[in-house]
Write a structure and sequence with these properties.
By secondary structure, this protein is an alpha/beta fold. It has helices at 49-56, 79-83, 102-112, 119-128, 144-156, 174-189, 201-207, 225-230, 232-244, and strands at residues 11-20, 23-33, 38-42, 64-69, 72-73, 87-89, 162-166, 193-197, 210-215, 218-223. Helix 3 packs parallel to helix 5 (144-156).
């Protein structure tokens, strides 16, 4: 009998580098994400986390290295080509259509992927996230927490295999935080893969299977939450400041 061939990582970064003029935003960064897992990407402000998101989704092109999705290189593809391979994303600054009703935001998300028959799934997510009663309200009138839920729903309606979330808990009420956590845990249970930038350490430690830590554009640690929590380099770069509530505690 032949040996089974292991599935490739969902995402693999190899020697990734990006410069802005004389500034190295990301330097020789390598890590992999297994399918169906949740990975946290943490580090102080300016450590290169959002730059990595922009590189993965095609908003930026790397100066060095390679990005592979399901074993195939994507770092030379346009943003829309990468999105069509099953990638979704939320942003630190919420990206919604503020002048349009909530339900039309979902419609635009679905049309962007040329989906048909999305309405029942979209309505189900609006109900589960507590947004159904606001379906006809302009999205710009929602609270910041509700706007983050809407942006999440816009991704859920397209059902991405791989979702990148950039600070999904920023500015939200604890009730919304719990809703988001439960929704992401459900996505993992359905085999979806998640990469999350987040500064709320209890949330990250409780949800993630693995954590990658960035500092000054370099990966300084990678491993399960319990190992990251005890790593002296991480404590010095991030967790110690977070526990003291210092100005650099955000990820």
């Amino acid at each position: 009998m032949g040996q089974e061939v292991a599935a490739p990582p969902k995402l693999a970064l190899a020697g990734l580098g990006k410069r802005f003029g004389g500034l190295r935003a990301v330097s020789a960064c390598s890590f992999e994400i297994a399918p169906g897992t949740v990975v946290g990407l943490i580090g102080p402000n300016g450590s290169g986390k959002s730059t990595i998101f922009n590189l993965v989704t095609g908003l930026l092109r790397p100066d060095e290295g390679a990005i592979r999705l399901d074993g195939e290189r994507i770092d030379g593809l346009a943003t829309h080509e990468i999105a069509r391979r099953g990638i979704g994303r939320t942003f630190q600054s919420v990206k919604i259509f503020r002048d349009l009703p909530v339900r039309e935001n979902l419609a635009i998300a679905a049309m962007g992927r040329r989906l048909r028959g999305w309405e029942p799934r979209g309505w189900e997510w609006l109900e589960r996230l507590g947004l159904a009663r606001l379906a006809d309200a302009p999205a710009g009138r929602l609270s910041i927490g509700q706007q983050r839920l809407l942006e999440l729903a816009m991704n859920l309606v397209i059902d991405p295999e791989f979702l990148l979330l950039d600070e999904p808990l920023a500015g939200v009420h604890p009730v919304v935080r719990r809703q988001i956590g439960e929704t992401l845990a459900e996505m993992r249970s359905r085999g979806r893969t998640l990469l999350i930038i987040e500064h709320h350490m209890p949330f990250v430690m409780g949800l993630c299977d693995k954590i990658v830590v960035m500092d000054h554009g370099e990966k300084i640690a990678e491993g399960p939450p319990e190992a990251i929590r005890a790593d002296p380099r991480v404590i010095a770069a991030l967790l110690g400041r977070a526990e003291r509530g210092g100005p650099d505690a955000r990820a």
